[in-house]
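Input structure tokens:
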């Protein structure tokens, strides 16, 4: 299918499709007239990319970690996908723990009597 049809079927702009192709996330054959010709599996793959982005994966992570769905390579196995998702979950849990620690520190500062401002001296003058 040509880029216009792929764009219509996925809701992605032609520029986005070209960008994905340039990054290697999407492959197209070139017809004799130079038009891009995408395999039918591209629609499914792009849905997979959009789902992964919705789950918090960056394009770099998708490129590096998520198995590709192309006409040359079959879909990811359930075990491969589970491993990638488990690693992402661990990363999210670590970020949440870090944010909870930061929240606790901020709350302690707010609850302390007269929180000390590091920009003010003992008498309240602004330090340079």
């Amino acid at each position: 299918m040509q880029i216009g049809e792929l764009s219509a079927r996925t809701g992605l702009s032609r520029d986005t499709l070209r960008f994905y192709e340039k990054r290697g996330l999407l492959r197209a054959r070139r017809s004799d007239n130079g038009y891009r010709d995408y395999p039918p599996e591209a629609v499914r793959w792009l849905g997979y990319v959009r789902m992964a982005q919705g789950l918090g994966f960056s394009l770099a992570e998708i490129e590096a970690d998520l198995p590709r769905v192309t006409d040359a390579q079959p879909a990811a196995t359930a075990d491969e996908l589970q491993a990638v998702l488990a690693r992402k979950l661990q990363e999210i849990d670590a970020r949440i723990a870090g944010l909870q620690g930061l929240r606790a520190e901020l709350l302690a500062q707010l609850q302390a009597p007269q929180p000390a401002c590091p920009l003010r001296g003992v008498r309240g003058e602004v330090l340079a």
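Residues 25 and 80 are 18 Å apart (CA to CA). The beta strands are 29-30, 36-37.
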